């Protein structure tokens, strides 16, 4: 009974934090528009680029065009998931609310759970319109890859979360000076993630870095799936690497959160 009561209490606290952020979007159409803006803009740019290439190169460029559009859409899943956690955390800092949150009975893992829930909603709000646009304008259906696309989504979301936990940890450690990392870290991993090209085209010295990232295995798997082949080996590597990196992200966040609490930084961070 006690365990059930505690569980319900945790769920209420997680929902309370989640609802706080939902209320911001419910009352602000510019915030909702911002969620869709970059994914849709990226899809327009890359969609028109692939249309141009197909028009010049003919049928030989169709497969490459599909790989480019699929890469754009799936990479937005990771980007929006990472920013959903990191920016939602920054909004707590900007509103000077972080100290108030942890004066309440809320525990760190409950806050992280709420941020992850918000990131899923932010990601879907941003990526689904881009997927629809790709189908309407360029006749590219991402879901035609098959049910395996759900596994691609899941792995890229988890990658976005552990990257975000690393960013939040740096903000807890270094304060407002690290805020810019919320927008830049995952973009910095794009060259190593094999989003638009296979890992084999990278220099030999860089390939181990790429293969240590779950995203490179997801995109290698996506290109194989476009050819009708499901590469379970790449998916297995993506899952295993996500488990390792997520564990590291949780450990780093927990360590930096403890240090921030001891220093009293939860009240002064962001000032």
Short descriptors:
single chain, 271 residues
Textual characterization of the structure:
- With 271 residues, the protein is mainly alpha-helical.
- It has one domain.
- It has helices spanning 2-26, 29-57, 62-94, 98-103, 108-138, 148-174, 181-189, 207-211, 214-226, 232-263, 265-268.
Contiguous uncertain segments of 5+ residues = none
SSE pattern: HHHHHHHHHHH
Q: What level of helicity do the residues show?
A: over 70%
Strand count: 0
Terminal CA distance: 43 Å
Mean pLDDT: 88
Rg computed from alpha carbons, rounded to a whole number of angstroms: 20 Å
% residues in beta strands: under 5%
Q: What would you call the shape?
A: globular
Structural class: mainly alpha
Number of helices: 11
Number of domains: 1
Largest sheet: none
How would you name the oligomeric state of the polypeptide chains in this document? single chain
Topology:
Blueprint: H1 2-26, H2 29-57, H3 62-94, H4 98-103, H5 108-138, H6 148-174, H7 181-189, H8 207-211, H9 214-226, H10 232-263, H11 265-268
Helix pairs in contact: 1-5, 2-3, 2-5, 3-5, 3-6, 3-7, 3-9, 6-7, 6-9, 6-10, 9-10
Write a brief caption for the model.
It is built from 11 helices and no strands. With 271 residues, it is an all-alpha fold.
């Amino acid at each position: 009974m006690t365990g059930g009561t505690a569980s319900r209490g945790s769920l209420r606290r997680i929902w309370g934090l989640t609802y706080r952020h939902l209320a911001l979007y419910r009352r602000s159409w510019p915030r909702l528009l911002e969620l869709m803006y970059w994914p849709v803009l990226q899809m327009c740019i890359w969609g028109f680029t692939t249309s141009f290439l197909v028009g010049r190169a003919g049928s030989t460029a169709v497969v490459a065009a599909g790989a480019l559009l699929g890469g754009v859409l799936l990479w937005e899943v990771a980007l929006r998931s990472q920013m959903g956690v990191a920016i939602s955390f920054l909004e707590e800092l900007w509103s000077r609310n972080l100290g108030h949150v942890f004066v309440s009975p809320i525990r760190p893992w409950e806050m992280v759970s709420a941020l992850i829930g918000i990131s899923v909603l932010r990601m879907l709000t941003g990526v689904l319109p881009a997927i629809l646009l790709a189908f309407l304008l360029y006749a590219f259906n991402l879901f035609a890859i098959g049910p395996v696309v759900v596994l691609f989504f899941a792995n890229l979301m988890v990658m976005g979360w552990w990257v975000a936990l690393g960013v939040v940890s740096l903000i807890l450690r270094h304060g407002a000076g690290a805020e810019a990392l919320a927008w830049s870290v995952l973009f910095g991993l794009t060259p190593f993630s094999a989003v638009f090209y296979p890992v084999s085209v990278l220099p030999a010295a860089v390939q181990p870095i790429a293969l240590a990232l779950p995203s490179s295995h997801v995109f290698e798997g996506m290109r194989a799936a476009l050819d009708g082949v499901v590469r379970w080996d790449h998916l297995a590597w993506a899952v295993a690497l996500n488990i390792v990196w997520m564990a590291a992200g949780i450990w780093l966040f927990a360590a930096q959160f403890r240090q921030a609490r001891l220093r009293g930084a939860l009240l002064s961070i962001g000032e």
